[in-house]
Amino acid sequence: MPDREAIRSNAKYLRQVRPIDPEEISEYVEGGPHPAVVRQVLREEAFDLGLTERDDGTFVPIETGTIEPPRLPIAAFPDEYTRALENQLVDAYGSDWHRGSSGDALREAIRELKEAYHQGWSVAYDDETAALAYAIYHLPDYYAAIQYVVSELAEVGLLDRRLRVLEVGAGAGGPALGIADAVPEDALLRYDAIEPSASADVLEEMLEAAGPHVESTIHRTTAEAFEPGEADATDAPGTDGEDATAYDLVVFANVLSELDDPVATARRYAEFLADDGALVLLSPADRRTSGVLRGVERALSAGLEPQGLGDVSGLPDPDDPADDSLATVFSPSVRLWPNQVPADEGWSFAVQPDLDVPAFQQHLDDPAGASGEFVNVDVQYAYATLRWDGERRVEFTPDRGDWAPLAESGNHVSERVDCVAIKLSDDLSEGGHPLFRIGDGSQTVDHFAVLTKETALNDSLPAAEYGDLLTFESVLVLWNDDEAAYNLVVDGETIVESVDAPVR
């Protein structure tokens, strides 16, 4: 066995002096291990040592700082991951995996997956066919969705070039691969994935295609049973003895609705975050799963325990001291008004451009008549990013002298007011006047901005991105009895401006 500690010690010294050459280190270590052995040890220790391997085979310290946002929009599932999944399918069923009995079994597994999802049943991936079917149908959209979410953290400099991530219920690896590609190859990613099902086998092989800058460990256990390793101080540059078990991101992607107690589980895993870390919650865009996610968000950020979809109660005791265990909503549903919390239904989701159809989905769909039943390229998702350091994507606090909180809309029915809000949907009108969900974090019922007459002074409303901050001047407040919601009518008298997000 090589003297790992001697190799580490030499690397720690040389990284301050010159690029680390495995051949040089082999000369300094007792027994003269082969340079290939030294190189392998350096690769395994790269994250803790803060090193990246260059094309010439030497190792150098990674640059300090933060990563740039991934390039958006995401157009397609990458070829290298497509090949990795197709290789697994061929290994399992042969080159004609999409035909005959194997193709029929995979298509039936996807149908069962979709039925369970729509019925709200628990989904089990307890055999190879179910795991591969899940990967075929969901790897591409989950790969894309997570990159849009983490890009918001990257665009304001909150993702380090040495990133530690824990994903709870990692499935076949869509989010893991998305985050791996969001981190540049000259940075470092340590990825811990918790996945007890047969999907862990698919995940393991997919992560092998993620690149040498990714160090991954799959924990084949349940979310309830997992415990991080003992607290340990690393000696990587800039860590200053930090807890090596603290994560920069803890991710729950498309798993909250399958947990027995999603609030308690998310709250427990928040304790594994670094002081400046973020909890990322992601779910499909449908009403049920989005409602579970929003209930977790509100429980962790406002002390409100969900009593059902969109229904929250149990405010903290006002006589208690301020509870610094409560999270700040970083995005998208930022609480703009201090000491205000939302109590509307909160069904909000982002819609991004469709992906190109990946070859493995097309292969499976064609024998079934090319109906599109087995193609899934829609990128639509609900999400929440929570932090415990007070950071928000939109740093804006309204002044009551200038703006009316949405909580007070009932006092302004049939009046024109000025207000500020976050845009929380694409156009929901289905052919009528453009309709957009909005919120400022104080609303007690749903609020929608209705564009009845577009002008050059209000065209920021349809043009704004999901999660952007908007100001409304002279908007008409009406009550919609049919929807039990407030409509803020944007007409020829209304001025709407987009405040560039992030605002810092």
Write the layout of secondary structure elements.
Blueprint: H1 4-14, H2 22-28, H3 35-44, H4 46-49, E1 51-53, E2 59-61, H5 79-93, H6 100-119, H7 128-154, E3 162-168, H8 174-182, E4 188-194, H9 199-207, E5 214-219, E6 247-253, H10 262-270, E7 273-284, H11 287-302, E8 305-306, E9 312-313, E10 328-331, E11 350-352, H12 359-365, E12 379-387, E13 416-423, E14 435-439, E15 447-451, H13 460-463, E16 469-480, E17 485-490, E18 495-499
Helix pairs in contact: 2-3, 5-7, 6-7, 7-8, 7-9, 10-11
Descriptive report:
Strands 3, 4, 5, 6, 7, 10, 11 and 12 form an 8-stranded mixed beta sheet that branches. Strands 13-14-15-17-16 form a 5-stranded mixed barrel. Helix 5 (79-93) runs antiparallel to helix 7 (128-154) and helix 10 packs across helix 11 (287-302). The chain folds into 3 domains: 4-61, Arc Repressor Mutant, subunit A; 79-228 and 241-387, Vaccinia Virus protein VP39 (Rossmann fold, 3-Layer(aba) Sandwich), CATH 3.40.50; 406-499, Nucleic acid-binding proteins (OB fold (Dihydrolipoamide Acetyltransferase, E2P)). It is built from 13 helices and 18 strands. It has 504 residues and is α/β, with parallel strands linked by helices.
Task: Offer a quick outline of the entry.
By secondary structure, this protein is α/β, with parallel strands linked by helices.
